[in-house]
Model the fold of this input.
Amino acid sequence: MTQLRTDAAYHVNNRIVAENFDDEMVLIDVDNGIYFSMQGSAAAVWRAFETPQVPASACAELTAELTEPDRLSVARLIHELAERKLIVEAEAAPPAPAGRLSRFAATSFALPVLGVFTDLADLIAIDPVHEVDDQAGWPVRPASGDGQA
Amino acid sequence: MAVRRASLYKADLRTDLTQSEHWVEGGLITAATLPDYARARLAAARALPRAGLLHHRFALPLLDLDCWFSEPRLRQLCTERLAARGDGEAARTHADVFLLDGTLPGWEAPVLWDVRQGFTSRDFETALEREGLRGFYHHEAPSWQFHDPDARTGVHSLPEPMAIPPWESGSPLRLFLHWTYARMGLRLTHAATLGAGTAGALVVGASGSGKSGTTLAGLLNGLSSAGDDYVLLETGAEVTAHAVFRVFKQDDAGLRRVGLDAAAIGSKGLNWHGKHEFDAAALRPEGFARRMRINAILVPKVARLPRTRIEPLSPGQAALALAPSAVLQLQGDMEDGFRFFAGLTRRLPAFRVHLSEDPAEIADAIGRHLMQGVALAG
Done:
C-alpha cells in the first residue's frame, strides 16, 4: 500500500482517465483496471492536485472554513487518493504556492465519497505484460506490488 | 496453480531462448524491440505468397475485410461468427488481416515476450502507439496481434493453427475490428442491444448483471437484437448499433430460464467461460437486426421482482456501467474510448432495469418502455 509522504508534493496521476458528469466523476486506472466514482466534494479535492500540492498544506487550505469532522473527511480522502495512486508524488516539481486553492464553504460542503470498483481488474491482471516477480515469473506479482484489490 | 503455470512458462522461455536470435538480442521481445518486431511481422505477412493462403472477404458493417488464413478451421470459425452487413449497405473502407501460424512454411513462430522485464500494459500500448501501431500479446499460447491503422493491415501470429485466445472463439478478430473501426471514428462496444419497433437500447452491465439473459429473453419474446456481447456503434445525428457478431452466449441455467437447452440451440459444447455459443441469427432470424437505432441505455439488475421495474439512472451511473467495461475489454485507444462512451452516456437517457424472473414479462416491460420513449420524443 502506498503511504502518503508528508514532506512531498503530489499531483494527479496522469495515467488516470477521468470524465466529469453533473453530480459525479468517473475515473479509470487503465494500468490495473480499477475504476472509481467520486461524489460530493471528492472530485474537487482530487482536482486540487492538478497542480502539485503538499497534502497537509492543501488539506489545511481547502478545509480552513470547515468543521473538524469535515476536515478529517478530506484528510482521509487525500490519504486514499495516494493509496489508490489517484495522486502520485510529483518528482522534482515544486508545490504550487499556498493560497491558490478555493476553500470549501461550510454551508455548502458535501462529504467526499470515493467509490472503488475492482470487478474488471482481472481483465488487466491476465495481461502478460505486467510487472512480474523476478523469481517466480509471470503471473506472480512482485511482493511490493501496487496493492491492487 | 499459478506457480505451476509460471514454472511451465519459464520452461518455455528457456526452450525458446535460441529462437529468432537474429531478431532481438537474447531471442525475446522487449519494450525496445517491440515496435520493430511488430513492423517486421506486418511486412512479412504482406510479403507472403497469397497462393499458399486461404482467403475470405467479410462484408461487414461499413467495412470490407479481406482475411488471409493459414488454417481452414479458423476461417470456418470466422465465417460462422461474423455477421454480414445488410443488403444494400456499402463499405466505407477496406482492411486486410493475416492469421498465420508457426506450422505454415515460411512463417516464423511467435517470439516470446521477455517476462523478466517489469512492464505495464499501458507501457506496452504506448510503445506501439508511438510508432502508430496497435498490438496485443497473449501469453498462454504465446501469440501476437499487430495492427497498422494507417496501412489498414493486421497480423495475428499464432504458435499453433487454432491457438487464438479462448475468449475470442465467440468474437474472432475483435481486436482488429476494434482498431480498424476506431480509426474510422466508430466504436466496437462491449454491450448488448434490444430493440422494439424503431427504438433500440444498449444493454450494459458487469458480468452477472443479467445483461445476456435479458437480451436472450427479449430476442425470444418479440424484441430484436443486434448482438449480446459486442456491437459496433456509429454516432452522428443518431446513434446506430451495427451487428458484427451473430453469436450469443449463455450458460445452462440461463438457457433453462428462457425454456431452451443445449440441444435446442445446436450447442457444440461449453466455451472457456462455461457458456454455450449459438447463432442468434439462426435461432430467431426475424429478431436478429443488422442495424438498430439506439435511443437509450439500459442497465439491468437481477432483482427477482414480481414485475420488472424501470427507473431513470444518472449519466454518471450509466457511465460507470458502460465505459470501464467497454474500454478495458478492448485494448488500445483507451482514452479516446472513454471519452466516446462518456459522451454517449451524456447524450442518451439511461435506465436501471430491476428484473423480474419472467422472460416474457421482462421483454414486454422493456418493449413498452422503448416504444413509450420514442412516442414521447416524437
Q: What stands out?
A: Residues 359-377 of chain B form the longest helix (19 residues). Chain B is about 35% helix and 25% strand.
